[in-house]
Predict the 3D structure of the following.
Amino acid sequence: MKKKKSTLGGSRAWVIWFIANLIVVFGFNLQTGYAFVNNSMGIELNLTLAQIAFAGSVYTWVFAISQFFSGSILDAFSVRKIFPLSVLLVLIGAYLFANASSLQSLVFAQIFLALGASFGFVGAGFIGGLWFGFSKFGIMFGLTQTFVSLGSFVGGVIFSNLIENGASWSEVLDYMVYFGIVVLILTLLFIEDPINSKDREHKKINKKFFIDILKSIVKVAKKRSIIVSACSGGITFGIFLAMAVLWAPKLIMAHGFSEIDAGMLTSWLWVGLATGALFVNTISNKLKSRRFTMMLFGFIQAISLTIIIYINTESTILMGAIMFLFAVSSSGHMLAFTVGGEVVKLKFIATSSAVINGTMYLFGGFVIWFLGEFLHGNTLNHFQDALISMPILLVIASLMVYLMKESFTKSR
């Protein structure tokens, strides 16, 4: 039977892109769901706050390390082969997560989740480039972040409603397992490469393959713009991730809000990130500068986070508006991927994205971990003393971008 010719764009490309993004939503909601279930899970498993933070940071560290290899693997192999394995690993992790009975089993689950999810976000962005052309790489990556963020918001609403209606933390995660089974079936049925992309089927996993991966990573990492944008984006995204995954609901409850309100307000962080990611590349193009846009968004993020930490209000509307602004400005980290796509050859574009995303998650894991180590109580004063370090880091990240070269003029 003659295989149907694949062309860039069109309805088929959008279906494949949609399913690729569903894969990211599946993995991402298991990560962000940690913010909703960690309190009741910690009580049932008799975990301390530091242990809960440690388990959360394990995910980000394993994810980050895996990222450095996942991009090169995507550059080398068909997504038709990689994505089903990715979903299967996340699905196994979700099952282990739902049935965790100790810190050790929880950490084990996080490792599986991270290994599988490491192909998701970069892979979805890569598929956007494969099926819509790499000239639209930055825009498609922004659309992926928007889609995934909205998916995380919807997931947060569902998590909150399930918990409010009496579902246990393990029951909430069981629903994610069922969702993952559906995603796996869709992946097996639809995900594929366009015929005219490039032949990656001849690659073999051997010593030479891993040496080539390391060479690709080193080649990409030698570019100053990638390292600087990755570190700056790592701080801005890492702080957003730390808030969205763990610290935001705890801080909001310390301000006097209920657990349900804290969960809903935290969900709005993803709507804000989705909104910002949708427009940040367009704004950067209008300003004709990646550096200035990243700096501007970073300063707004620092100011809004400072207000969240110290504001004295009982208004969910006001708190939600400030958190939304914080999240919108957090989308400045997406420009790191745009810069990464502009300063490397097309054959290294997935590697570049993976190096940047991996660096971001290393920072995220560090922020989650060190706040857990230095937070010595659950009062508002304790949170304020620990979290004020984050706006300071954001100011440093904003100033850091001037160490990289402006890449706008090289935009494809």
DSSP finds 17 helices and no strands in the chain. Residues 195 and 402 are 41 Å apart (CA to CA). Confidence is low (pLDDT under 50) at residues 1-5.
